[in-house]
Amino acid sequence: MAGKGDAIMTYQEALEQISSQAKFGIKPGLERIIKLLDKMGNPQNRLKFVHVAGTNGKGSTCALLSSVLTAAGYKTGLYISPYILEFRERMQICGQMIPKEELAALTEELLPLIQEMEQDGDALTEFEFITALAMEWFARSKCDVVVLEVGLGGRFDATNIIGTPLVSVIMSISLDHTGILGDTVEKIAFEKAGIIKEGGDTVVFSRQDYGAMQVLREAAQQRNNSFCVAEPEEMEQVESDLLGTRFVYRGTQMHMPLIGEHQVLNAATVLAALDVLRKKGFELPLQAVAQGFAQVSFPARLELLSKHPVFLLDGAHNPNGVQALAAALRQYLSGKRITAIMGMLADKDSHASIGYLNGLLDQVYTLTPDNPRAMQAEEFAALWREMGVSAKAAQSPRQAVELALAHAGSDGAVIVCGSLYLAAEIRPVAIEILKGMAPSA
């Protein structure tokens, strides 16, 4: 593709153009993205990748990997979805989001190719468009390595147009997106295993369903991959509280501002992937690992917005994620009165999810997440009431936060969960309201 021109398109226009592709929905398959990247000169072929798939834990793992590689001095691209606060979070280099003017210029440059494909009957989805933009930006920026998060599944995901990555990382697998990926963990594992490429190296999260692990192991064997199950045995003296997790690894003290037992297992997976990268010539001293872990920033993953009252924001949105959240609530908030603000998408298994939280919550305020697939707040509140939990539908994020804080009192706790879309809506409102209250330090 040609070099950068002067952007006439504004950032806002670029966002509108990108989101206009959403009307083409989710269309698994690589034909369209292959065709587009070919027209662009295949920028992905100029890059090296760490490819990360899984139902839960992908985001935290990508954030940790990117933070460590950046701390070690590598120019590191990061591609994630969905975003929490701002669209540009989806593509970052060394922790910095793509500048607005660069995103606008790239969008304008790609637009003729997108329109040409649409006229040929090959309309790209929103995710394919964003993936192509990211590949071009990372290639032009001459990234040393890109941490690439799968959008959905693996085999037919737009990110899977890359060749053999430096390492394929597969996180916790459970039932989610069953309409697209399959109705058993084995079928879903088969889709995720699509990122395991010939002659590569595969690292997998240790707590997998037996059937899922067998599928991953077989795929790695068939494609001549080394296969590492990332046990946390080298992580010693593990301690965790609301402020984060501390442990000793190979004699070095580490701390990360991520909490919950699942984050210890995610960290173990990251450490195993870093070992693979070391074998491939990456210099990753333990001090850089410690620095990367300490500096990691990841909104809406058991994120502590306030200590008095405790206000936690979490993106848990499927049964597996909510189960991990419930374990964390038992560990950190035992004895506290917990008030929840919740909303879910209608295509998630809400019955199973709320089952894990039943008995932990004193009061629930429901909201309708800002997404066309959202379950209505009143319908969700009714589900809770059927379980014998007091629940009311709130009219707005602001009202939900105010009601929850009033109900929790200064000694209680508020937890926001059920949807990343909901977390994105609540976060700025909660920060503003909490700022206006007594200091929470």
Automatic annotation (TrEMBL):
| Domain annotation Mur ligase C-terminal: ranges | 301-419
Give cofactor(s), names only: Mg(2+)
Sorted alphabetically, the keyword list is:
ATP-binding, Ligase, Magnesium, Metal-binding, Nucleotide-binding
Q: Which domain of life is it from?
A: Bacteria
Tell me which EC number(s) this protein carries.
6.3.2.17
Q: What GO MF annotations does this protein's record show?
A: ATP binding; dihydrofolate synthase activity; metal ion binding; tetrahydrofolylpolyglutamate synthase activity
Gene Ontology cellular-component annotations: cytoplasm
Q: Which reaction does it catalyse?
A: (6S)-5,6,7,8-tetrahydrofolyl-(gamma-L-Glu)(n) + L-glutamate + ATP = (6S)-5,6,7,8-tetrahydrofolyl-(gamma-L-Glu)(n+1) + ADP + phosphate + H(+)
Mur ligase central domain sequence ranges: 52-273
What family is this? Answer: Belongs to the folylpolyglutamate synthase family.
Q: Know the name of this protein?
A: tetrahydrofolate synthase
